[in-house]
Amino acid sequence: MSETAVSNTVAAHTVASASDLTKTYGTHDAIVTALDHVSVNFERGKMTAIMGPSGSGKSTLMHCMAGLDTPDSGTVLVENLKVSSMTQKQLTKLRREQIGFIFQSFNLIPTLSAEENILLPLEISKRKIDRDWFNHIVDVVGLQSRLTHRPSQLSGGQQQRVACARAMMSRPSVIFADEPTGNLDSKSSGEVLGFLKSSVQRYNQTIVMVTHDPRAASYADRVLVLADGRITNDMKEPSYEEILAVFANEGSDSSQSTQKDDAADDASAMQKGSHR
Ligand SMILES: Nc1ncnc2c1ncn2[C@@H]1O[C@H](COP(=O)(O)OP(=O)(O)OP(=O)(O)O)[C@@H](O)[C@H]1O
Ligand SMILES: [Mg+2]
């Protein structure tokens, strides 16, 4: 079908890329290599999950990609714009227009309503608000009846859906999400992941998402694993079981298999295991 042909052509296009990225923190004997020559391309209309142990460089990679942190060397491109050599003013413009960021801690303004939070980035940058798109997004995230509520009057899942709607509002080229379901229970996680996945499928949104949760990662089209600042696995459309297997193989102790069993139980309980 022609629609498929078009989406395949678009999907082959790289939206964001890192090339030979390095980042160290500290000096002398206290030096930490957070990113060790990382090169990766992110394609339009795909959802990529980034997994890996604590301290493996996941957040550092996201921050460098989004222009929130500066690499020591290497190049970051977003829509063919060289993020790694932009001035602060250029970075601000890029982040407002091309990049959405979703944090684990939601980062909503407590004194503003859900609607005001969603529209804030556009208000700040004095951009025109597309009401039809706003209504549509609110409809998709299921927040119609919560728009006048403040964050404290919303559940964690609802707050994160506000943050997702805020990230989608400017139709960014790419959304970076750092453990977007890290503070959510499994039901709310399912809602947020379902929304992110639908934005990929319906609007060709590009999403790069850090997660520790194999269930969350199984929503993705691709799963990258980082260890010690390097990409050690790059899996295309892995199943939940394939993702589990990577971590089971890496760990030799019994805690890994316990985690695996727990996760498998969760998966069957959730009834959400069949994303593909
Ligand atoms: N501002 C900083 N100053 C010093 N070291 C830092 C800083 N930020 C990160 N690091 C170090 O860089 C390494 C990578 O950190 P990063 O936050 O990217 O890990 P992560 O994979 O996101 O971990 P987590 O899963 O715990 O969030 C860690 O060893 C961390 O301690
Ligand atoms: Mg992190």
Automatic annotation (TrEMBL):
Domain ABC transporter: 16-253
This protein's record includes keyword Transport: yes
UniProt-recorded Gene Ontology molecular function terms: ATP binding; ATP hydrolysis activity; transmembrane transporter activity
Gene Ontology CC annotation, any one: plasma membrane
Residue span of region Disordered: 247-276
PROSITE patterns: ABC_TRANSPORTER_2
Record-linked SUPFAM superfamilies: P-loop containing nucleoside triphosphate hydrolases
Keyword vocabulary terms for this entry: ATP-binding, Nucleotide-binding, Transport
Domain of life: Bacteria
Protein name in UniProt: ABC transporter ATP-binding protein
Organism per entry: Bifidobacterium aquikefiricola
